[in-house]
Each structure stands twice: as C-alpha cells, then as structure tokens.
Amino acid sequence: MAVGKFWEGMKLRMNLKEIKEMLPFANKIKVYAFVGPSGTGKSYRAQMVAGEKDTHFIIDDGLLIKDNEVIAGESAKKAATKVATVKHALFYEEEEKVEIIKALKKYKPQSILILGTSDGMVQKIAANLGLPEISDTTYITDVATEAEMQTARKIRVTEGKHVIPVPTFEIKKDFSGYLLDPLQIFKSKGKGQQPYISEKSIIRPTFSYMGKFTISDTVFRQIVEYLAVQTPAIYKILKTRVENYGDGAKIYMEVTILYGYNVVDGLKDFKEKAKKEIEKLTAMNVVQLDVVAKNIYVPEEGE
Could you say which of 67, 108, 130, 247 is the most buried, measured as most Cβ atoms within 10 Å of its Cβ? Predict the structure, then answer.
C-alpha cells in the first residue's frame, strides 16, 4: 500500500511538473470562448465560430479537437452522471489535464476556442490547463436565433441528442452504443466567400433522459448471417449468438465449410469483412467475432 501511495505521489508530481513546463508556451496561445446554456446548439456551431476566429483548435466537453479530428481527451458525455460530466469537462483530474497539455505542446496552436455553459466555466477550463485569460467571447445568442435555440433545447430534452463537432468515424469507437447519426452542414457565407462545410456526429449521452441507444441483437445476427451466406467458403450456418457488452457486441458463429476451401483463410476473410460491415452499418464496435468450423460439406457428384 505504501509503495502504491509513493508512486501515486510521484505520478502527481510529474504531472504538475509537465503543467509548469507548459506554461511559457501556453501564455502565447490566444484563447477564445463560445458560451451558451446546455442544449442550445454550441457544439453544432462550434466549427463555424472557430472558423470566424481563424482557429483550428476547439475544446469541447473534455475533448481537444483539431479541425475535424479528436487529438486528445475523452468525451465527458461518456460519464455516468451529470456531476461527473461537469468535472470531466473542467479537466478536474490531473491525468486529464496532462493529456490535453501534451497535445497542446505537440501541436503548438496559436489560438484555441473553448466551449462552455458560462463565462465562469470557460475561465475555469483555461485556468486548469494553464492557458491565458479569455481574450474574446462569442455567445450563442450572437450566432443563433431564439427559435433555433428552442429547437435545439427541445431535441436535447425529448430525444437526448448531443452534437460533437467531429466526423462520425472519429468518435465511433468512443461512443459504441450511443452514436445516432452523422450530420453534414453546408452554409454559404456570402457571394465570393468560401462556404462553411462540416460534418458532425450526433450522440446520446450515457445519462440521457432517453436512456442508452441500443441496437437489437437480431440486427447483428441478420447482418452477419447475410454476409455468411454471401461467402463462398461457408456452406451453412449452424448457430449464431450475439451478446451486448456495453462497449460493443460479441458474436459467436458455428458454420459448415464447403470442401475445397482453405478453412483458415476462408474464415479469416469472412471475419474481417463481417466486422468491417457491421461497424459500418451500425456504428457499433464488434468487440469479438468468433467463427468456428464444425463440419465440412463434401458435394455429391453432379452438385
């Protein structure tokens, strides 16, 4: 126990040292803020506001995003409770701070946009990460009408949806079980100006009023069995079992192989194809896919 506490202390000191080393560089970063109540459409408009500020970096709900790519952090929306979500979004834990700081040291942004529900929240995030004070704040009321905010609130409350400003493929792995659908945005900025084009991912948080987003086991079974039927090496499906593991699905299948095909290569190709197609069609992770050859079918003459 004493050894464990010693290493815990060492780790904390190393984290604090890293934060202090970051400060000289961090002081050169221009910090912008985008503030608005929860559920009013901040994340939906985050990249648009970032573009107006000519910044490529966004901090939103525990994530550090560069353009359309998550480069550090874990979404606060995965937290089990709202309290835990707020703590995560504020980078309350030293480990969470250090991961973001390492990424900032690596990418050396000239500016960054921080999203938050209040002035106090964005100021706290900046302080926790050793960043300078906010130099300019954009409020949701500056970029959205009251009608648009009301619509966003209604969707959040009734459907539990939340937008994260990155493409679907960037967060699919992080949100297995909760991702709903991608959303593409095309917005003209006026004649002669480059249009704003972006893709978002809409997810349902773990603590959503609507509960977890799930896909029936039958869907997985139907997809994997359809793909098996299309595979020349597989003659017949004997059994299929699907289990939901929270962070993805575990699939077990028993098949009969057609004589003349290499069992190992045939099943390997099928597993790779099936895993890829299931994740593509459902946006859910396949944690494990086991395919067992129980029999070999030898066609009779003339078949």
Answer: 130
- pLDDT tens per residue, range 126-148: 999 989 999 999 999 998 888 88
- Asked whether 186 and 197 are in contact (CB, 8 A), the reply is yes
- Smallest CA-to-CA distance from 181 within 282, 80, 274 is with 282
Q: Are 283 and 168 in contact (CB under 8 A)?
A: yes
In 40-81, alpha helices (H): 42-52
Query: pTM score > 0.70 for this model?
Result: no
Q: What is the pLDDT of residues 208-253, one digit of tens each?
A: 444 444 556 677 788 888 888 889 999 999 999 888 765 678 899 9
**Whole-angstrom Cα distance, residue 117 to residue 100?**
20
- Which residues does 40 contact at the CB level (< 8 Å), separation at least 6? 140, 144, 149, 152, 153
Partners of 293 in the β-ladder: 255
Q: Residue 113's closest CA among 70, 162, 55, 164? A: 55
Tokens standing for residue 29: 């970063």
Contact between residue 35 and residue 120 where contact means Cβ atoms under 8 Å apart: no
Q: Which helix (H) or strand (E) holds 64?
A: strand 63-66
> φ and ψ at 268, to 5 degrees?
-65, -45
Domain boundaries, the chain: 2-203, 217-297
CATH 3.40.50.720 fits 217-297, yes or no: no
Q: What one-character-per-residue DSSP string does 148-208 give?
A: HHHHHHHHHHHH--EEESS-HHHHTTTTTTTEEEEEEEEE--STTSPPEEEEEEEE--TT-
